[in-house]
Amino acid sequence: MAETISMPKLGFDMAEGTLVRWVKKEGESVNKGEVLAEIETDKATVEVESTAAGVVRKLLVDEGAVVPVNTPIAIVGTADEKIEAAAPAAVQKPKAEGPAAKAPLEAMPASLTAAAPGITTGPVKASPLAKKVARESKVDLAKVRGSGPGGRIVRRDIEAALAGGAATSGVAAPVFTPVASVSQADEVVPLTRLRQAIARRMTESKTTIPHFYITHEYKVDSLLDLRRQLNNMFGEQEKVSVNDFIVKAAALALRQFPNLNAVFQGDKLLRRGNVNIGVAVAVEGGLLTIVCKDADRKPLRQIAAEVKAMAARAREGKVKPEEIEGSTFSISNLGMFDVENFIAIVNPPEAAILAVGSARELPVAENGIVKTGWRMKATVSVDHRLSDGAEAAKFMQALAVYLEEPVRLIL
Description:
Blueprint: E1 3-6, E2 16-22, E3 29-30, E4 35-40, E5 45-49, E6 54-59, E7 66-68, E8 72-77, H1 128-137, H2 155-163, H3 193-208, E9 211-219, H4 221-234, H5 242-256, E10 262-264, E11 269-271, E12 277-283, E13 286-292, H6 300-316, E14 329-333, E15 352-366, E16 369-383, H7 389-404
Parallel strand pairs: 12-14, 14-15
Antiparallel strand pairs: 1-8, 2-4, 2-7, 3-6, 4-5, 6-8, 9-16, 10-11, 12-13, 15-16
């Protein structure tokens, strides 16, 4: 019997998604769990799997359409099965946003355009899929005019450029004439869907959650030594990062402090049974949180492999829905940017988030002797409705036990 596939709800606050690309075409076979389409949400471009097996009998929406959640998008059945004609889905095509939408140039079809002499353009806005196609086809994105929201380059723009005889990146680049520094006109830059989602969530967090902050400095000499030994043992492909140690340590510490692994529900709190650590990953246009499920029960080596693979997919726009949902506590690590310390905003509906700075070699005094040592600061931001300063401080001390005696994390 034919089954209707609907636009999935990928996250509690998702209302709609853009169908970026059909991976399966009409008439092609598809297995249950096989990737059917790529959908762009407020957070990322994710691969959506088919919930049925059979033949793709009908695709109900076009690529590039904005589709509300739970709207039918495809019908899967047997090759000879008679199916009822489905009504077209209530979708809308992406529209250009901002003042640029009124400019005559925006009405032109997608094409390659050379930048005006003496003008340096900003970062190119393109979907992950468009970047992939451009890279494989050796098309210079800087010369493609986008037809997506806010002038964003999408796959059809690359295909149109190729059909029009686009020059590839192998052709000599145009020479730009340096100009004297002059004041620039104001520029209106439409926010991406991801940036809009971040704006909504962070505003909600800072206006509805009473934050407080606790900072602790950790001795990480032993951690760095153990990491070096493990990486020499594991090899290049299985290296563990400092953040992998922190994920494992935080997960174990949360078992002792369940109020920091909870959700506020008015007159009660829900202590989560699983410890799912969200790891903030920098992607184009913002941040995306990937989730290491049951991190307290996984060995360090498995955490390292999972986080590395998910982070790579996040940057490529290929994450799976389950990889970005369900976190119960988050970690934001800016150590790679030589940041001493910072505070992060709680990610609703979680109770806390840990902000991690750089490991630094500093002069330290121990037993009256000054020597060098490695120190790392971290700050936990906590929802004051669920916990208090003393409990959060004890959590940071428990974290110190694992980070300063890291052999506990591999036993």
